Amino acid sequence: MSPDSLAGSATREPAPSGLSTTVAPAPRGLQGGPPRGAARRCRDGPCHARSPNFSTPVRGVSRRRQRSCLSLARLLQTSAVPFPRGPDPLPSVEHAMKAHDRSLPAPPEPSPAAGADSVLRAFAVAAAALALTLALTAAPAARAAAQDAGDETCMMCHANADLAREGGNRGSVHVKLDEVRRSAHGRLSCVSCHPGAAGDMPHAPNLPDVQCAACHADAAKAVAGRPHGGVGGKGAANCESCHGTHAVRPAAAMGREACAACHADVAAAYGASLHAQALARGDNEASTCKDCHGATHEVRSHRDPESPVAHGNLVKTCARCHNDQALVERRKITIPAAVQLYQNSVHGRSTNPGAATCSDCHESHALLKATDPRSSVYRTHIPATCGKCHAKELAAYTTGIHGQALERGVTKTPVCTDCHGEHQIRGPHDRTSPVASGSSVTRTCASCHDATGIRETFGLPAGRLSSYQDSFHGLAARGGSPVVADCASCHGYHDVLPSSDERSMIHAKNLEATCGKCHPGAGARFAQGRVHVAMARAEEPVLWWIRTIYLWLIGATIGGMALHQGAHFVRHMRQRYRAQFERRAEHAPSGRWYERMTVAERWQHGVLAVSFFTLVYTGFALKFPEHWLFAWFARLETGYALRSWVHRGAAIAMVGVSLFHVGYLFTPRGRRLLADLLPKLSDARDVVENGLYLAGLRRHPPKMPRFSYIEKAEYWALVWGTVVMTVTGVVLWFQNQTLRMFDLWVFDAATLIHYYEAWLAFLAIVVWHLYQNIANPEVYPMNWTWLHGRISEEQLQHEHGGLWEEMQAEIRAREEAEARARLEAERAAQAGGPAPAGT
Fold first, then answer.
1. Within a domain: residue 772?
2. Which of these three, 208, 223, 254, is where a domain ends?
């Protein structure tokens, strides 16, 4: 029977003499022969633990076990199953066993292939497989017994607790065998690590160093050249330093105590940190030493540029956890975008290799909550933390009123992060920074000084923010000026002191120098004025009266104009609808036109209109820079200069056209124009009659002259407004010269008058002039006279009936004079005398 007949599933083959024999399948694992290396495992099993040729019995291994191995070898040899042989063939093993025990029976000789023998061989193979299984399961126990036998030999000496080296390399060589058995090397014997101890006993007094790299080549290669690279040597750190000598711990069982053996202070700091506390609560995601310093065998010095804890790499290392949004949400980290905020900060963008990173503020190992009084970012510790890099600023802060309050235990006093921010700290030259010059630093200061709770608690004066914002400085700052004075310009940045302190920049004796930084030559009289002007009658009576009078004047004037124009609109809309209903024209067109404005007058009007509305827009852009109407203009300019120069350019144009108009009044037409614009008693009568007409108490409106009381009021209001705005504008434009000659209240009064006069002029133009020439139902959509200079006879007759009658009277008088002249000429011709002169 061939060996192949034993492989695979059950098969049938014809037996000799016509017998049919069923062959059982070979046991699993022996199909096609026994497993590769089975014979070697048998030879290397407990029977050969000490003597491959069984020349001596093995202690702890019974003769029955040895005979079982020999029987297995015989069965494997006599079976027809192919079996790979090693360098030590089985016959030599059998011979050795016979020499050891003469009572063993001789192995049976193989018989010829036959049907019955095949069945017997199949059963023999099954029995051999069973015996092999028993031998293999017994092998570990046998090896352990052999190991115990070898280790017990070593422990005959090394179990002595007093055993120690002598000479230069002193130290205990006591070994606790139970610790070795529980360690990662528990399956190894002593000679596995100390091959020099094999052989005769006692061994040499100085054994070679243990070569961990013989088994752990990858780890040895990784750690070579690193701070922990003293593998097997006498370096500061080697394998024993972390893993131990005999009680070797596996990597999975090693915690920070392995690092603490050398880094006790660091381990103690970490033990109190947030990470260690989370780890103690069972949070396996909490950072440990290797999470920051790298893989166990690849730890680099923090001075190594490639180390994950090198100064330049710390942000990336911390970001592995703090930039993981899933982890941030699971752990409810308070600042979820701390990494992005830092990267956008002045520290994150800095090219300085020494710029602050995470550990500079939060410490390297003792990371604690900001609410923990021991934390480096606890509120009262923040100045000292920032002062590690910013020593000059820290010294100024501790001198100032804020630092003094913090030393007294006032925890609500501002610290570095209240003004500069926490992670996204931006430099003072960044326009988005909360400490940028202008409106930014003002808002930052106002967050405390304008907060009701803080102001009332610490007795701070009220109205400081509003008074600053309404001042010239505040208006320019809100408009985006990067050079205008803000809170820090006068009070200082870090060394803020009260005005009663002689060291303060706003102390009475220092004000002249403080203001002189921006206003050269500002005298002592200027410094005596109030900076934060409150519109209170008791504190600033002059300014209070100016403001009060203007508010009443604006209300009364614009209110009266609105009432007048509203009544005019209603009256004329009723007339228009009535005319349309009756299908008749209000004024039949005659086709005749009269000159209303000359070219020179139209040019004066055009320049005046453009300059006026430019002044209004750029002026209100200074006052209301946040409003959507003006915000784009504030963003368009890079600061205060553009708006300022556009405003001043328009002012020059307006003053220029005003002076031209004064000269124009000395021309013949100008003199007639001025005479017609002078107020007369008839204007008062027209006001009353037109009021009755608009109220529906009079059927027809009064017949107005060339310029009605409406146009005369506009003209003289324009003259008044131009003078007032020009004078106050010059005071504001040449502020340094003004401040040298006058007290500060003069400048403040000019600012107040300029502002309220602008409102009065703008509202008057809108309500009075624009309505009269645009929204008026009689001329809508516009009175085009300002462009072509003409007026139709119908409009002239309706709006200026008095002028039209005068013109008609003049025409009739001229016609009558011409008729008389012709009549006299005819009479003279008939009489034969000379014709009258002028005919």
1. yes
2. 254
Asked if the structure places residue 827 within a domain, the reply is yes
Phi then psi for residue 813, to 5 deg, are -65, -40
Q: What tens digit of pLDDT does each residue of 776-816 get?
A: 988 888 999 999 999 998 888 888 988 988 888 888 898 88
Q: C-alpha 690: how far from its chain's center?
A: 65
**Predicted pLDDT of residue 308:** 93
Helix (H) or strand (E) holding 151: helix 115-158
**Within a domain: residue 429?**
yes
754-774 residues labelled b (16+ CB within 10 A) or e (exposed) = bbbbbbbbbbbbbbbbebbee
> Does one domain contain both 13 and 106?
yes
Same domain, 822 and 708: no
151-181 pLDDT per residue, tens: 788 888 888 888 887 765 567 888 888 888 8
Q: Tens digit of pLDDT for each residue in 472-511?
A: 788 777 767 778 889 999 999 999 999 899 999 999 888 8
Same domain (yes/no): 508, 567: no
- The partner residues of 216 in beta bridges, in order of sequence, read none
Q: pLDDT > 70: what percent of the chain?
A: 77
Partnered with residue 13 across adjacent β-strands are 21
Are residues 782 and 667 both part of a single domain? Answer: yes
Q: Answer yes or no: is 490 within a domain.
A: yes
CATH code for the domain in which residue 587 is found:
1.20.950.20
Residue 460 token pair: 């701070």
List the one residue out of 501, 730, 479 whose CA is nearest residue 623: 479
- Number of neighbours of residue 104 by Cβ within 10 angstroms: 14
H/E stretch holding 14 reads strand 11-14
**Domain enclosing residue 668, as ranges:** 541-795
Residue 594 phi, psi (nearest 5): -130, 150
Given the structure tokens 């300085």, which residue do they identify? 352
pLDDT in tens, 90-119: 343 344 344 344 444 454 555 554 555 666
